[in-house]
Amino acid sequence: MNATSVRPADTPAGRKAFGPWRSRANISAWTLSAPAVFFIAVLFVYPLLDVVVISFTDPTLSLVNYREFFSSPLYARVLGNTFWFAFLVTAICLALGYPLAYVIVRYGGTLGFALLLVVAMSFWTSFLVRTYSWLVILGSKGPVTKLLAWVGFDPVPQILFNSFATTLGMVHILIPYMIMSIYASMQKIDPNHLRAAASLGATPFQGFRTVFLPLSLPGVVNGCTLVFIICLGFYVTPVLLGGPRDQMIAGLIGEQIEELLEWGFASAMAVVLLATTMALLAIYNRLVGLDKLWG
Amino acid sequence: MNDAYLCLKDVVKSYDGHVNAVDGISIDVRKGEFLTLLGPSGSGKTTTLLMIAGFEDLTDGALELDGRSLANVRPYRRNIGMVFQNYALFPHMTTETNVAFPLKMRKFPRDQVRPRVEKALELVGLAEFAVKYPRELSGGQQQRVALARALVFEPDVLLLDEPLGALDKNLREQMQVEIKRIHGEVGITTIYVTHDQTEAMTMSDRIAVFNDGKIEQVAPPLEMYHRPATWFVGNFIGDSNFFEAAVVDRSAGTLAVGSLGEITAARPDGGIAGGRVHALVRPEDIRLIHEGERTEGLNTFDMSVEGSVHYGDSVLVIGRVGSLSLRVRVPGAQAAAVVRDGQLRVGWRPEDVHVIPRD
Question: Which pTM does this prediction carry?
Answer without folding.
Answer: 0.81
